[in-house]
Write a structure and sequence with these properties.
91 residues, alpha/beta
């Protein structure tokens, strides 16, 4: 048996963000509400203000249970119908 000491260097994998569109005018915004308290209100107001400032439109609102991964069907609709998705947690 070989024992490896836990003193090695720790690292985190690099995170790659999705590219951000340079212009949001004419783009469709989607909301993925996780049903946590106030999440829907926060995301809807944020999306509406973003749309008003940029010329985008709020085109789709989907919900999911915060305790489980998003269903493939919901993700598929977001991919097909919008260019930008707002999601997050609010407690």
């Amino acid at each position: 048996m070989q024992i490896h000491p836990p003193t090695g260097a720790a690292s985190t994998p690099p995170i790659t963000l999705a590219p951000t569109p340079a212009v949001l005018a004419g783009r469709r915004i989607g909301i993925l509400d996780n049903r946590k308290p106030n999440a829907g209100i926060l995301l809807t107001r944020l999306a509406e203000r973003l749309a008003a400032r940029t010329g985008a439109e709020v085109a789709l609102v989907e919900t999911k249970n915060a305790a489980i991964p998003c269903e493939d069907q919901v993700l598929g609709r977001l991919v097909e119908e919008v260019e930008l998705v707002l999601t997050g947690t609010a407690d």
